[in-house]
Amino acid sequence: MNLILLALLTACALGLVTSQDKTRKLFAELEGEQESARKLDVEWGQLQLEQSTWAMHARVEKVARERLHMSVPDAKHTQVVMSAKGVQQ
Which of 34, 51, 70, 72 could form a disulfide with 64 if both were Cys (CB 3.0 to 4.6 A apart)? Predict the structure, then answer.
């Protein structure tokens, strides 16, 4: 009877050690993934900032003037188009 209990106790101890080892490995993997998520959040913020910089009105106007040789038309060349409901704003 003692030998059966000893074998059962050994099996439980080995199961506990295996379970703890697996838990440590999964926790380390979780921490790595959380670090990756933090890095991606930082990169996302930087990309949003870059996008807002590229889309700024002053920058778009500068590119239109320099690269596309565009300019704002004079007021005398501007025509207001009326809709059936009146002037659209």
Answer: 70
Give residues with Cβ within 8 angstroms of 59, minimum separation 6.
53
Pick the closest to residue 26 from 50, 54, 18 (CA basis).
18
Element (H, E) at 43: helix 2-54
Is the residue at 78 inside a domain?
no
15-53 tens-digit pLDDT? 999 999 999 999 999 999 999 999 999 999 999 999 988
- Structural domain that includes position 41: 2-70
The phi and psi torsions of 12 (rounded to 5 degrees) equal -65, -40
pTM reported for the whole predicted model: 0.55
Number of domains making up the chain: 1
| Residue 85 forms part of a structural domain | no
Proportion of the chain above pLDDT 70, given as a percent: 96
